[in-house]
Each structure stands twice: as C-alpha cells, then as structure tokens.
Amino acid sequence: PEPITHRAPTYSPPLDTASPAEHQGASVYVPPQRDRSYPQAPEVMLEPAALYPLEQERTFSLVKRWLKDYDARRDPFNIEQVEKKRTLQLNGIELSLAVDRIDRIGDALAIIDYKSGDKEAQVLQGERPEEPQLLLYAMLEPEKTRGLYFGVLHNSRMQYKGMQDAQLAFGKGTGKIIQADDWPARMQEWQQILAG
Questions:
Q1: Percentage of the chain with pLDDT > 70?
Q2: Which of 30, 134, 151, 162 could pair covalently with 114 via S-S, beta carbons 3.0-4.6 A apart?
C-alpha cells in the first residue's frame, strides 16, 4: 500500500538523509528537504502496515469495554445479523445497505449503527433528519423494527444513543434513548420523509 503522507505544521525534526531502501522495516521515513529557500517542515511518511497492530489493539480494547459495560447490562437479546448487506427499493431506486448490527428482542428488531464519533438521538428527528442512514435501515423491516440506536464507540464516551418504542425493553442505564410513545406513527413519518 501507498504510504500515508502528513506534513507536520510547525515542528522540524533533524533531517534524515537515508533513502527509503535503507529504512526497510522502519515505520517512519523522513525524506530530505530539497529546497532550503522555503522554510517548510519535512514530510513524514507513515507506513500503514506499522499502524495496523496499534489500531487492532485499540479496537479490541474498545469492543471489550463495550461488551462488558453496555451489552452485558441490557435486557435479554439475540444478535440477529452483523454487517449484512441488504437492498432496499425506495422511489424506484435500489439502494445497497450494510447494517452494522440487528438485535432481536422478543419479536422486535433493534438496529444498531456503530460510530467512532459522538452522535445525538436528536439527529433522527425533524422534517429533514441529519442522519437518514438509520431511517433507511428501519425501512428494511418496518413492521418489526422498534428501535434505532447509534453505538457510540469512543474512548471517552461509550453509550447507546437513539430512539425506540417506549414499550421496548432495551436496557436501562445504557445511554441516552428517546422513548417514542406512538412508534407506528413515528415509523410512518419516517417513511413519508424518505419517500419525499
């Protein structure tokens, strides 16, 4: 794979004049500055392969915390599907969707979209929701879907955020979840928004 190039904004480390061939196996190569008339920081190239183990370890740690601190506290559920590709017909257009996770809670489905950044449940509301992706997922099985959630997987804030049928037993203390008293009306509203 091609190296990821990043130009450091202010710090200029000592220049390394070794060639990339002399740096085989090293994760950082600092090419020499060619034109010294313009004071620029050197380009630092990170080999992607050097970052994979660190990212894998970070992800594993987050998932372990997630399972222990959040999923273990939920009411009983079964994981129905994980990252399954599905198609949805909407206004004569076929959309290809990949749902992160679908859980079954009794006869109901709970759809989870994992996010590494923060999301608020309010983005599912209004005439033009900011996050229509979860709404599209809900249209795959609208009769059974009773909850839509962002699984926020961030080191400093991990929780579920979303909206659900007020009758659904998802689990207390798992995050900020808006309770919808009239879930069928909410689903109908989303169908109209997406079809419009």
A1: 77
A2: 151
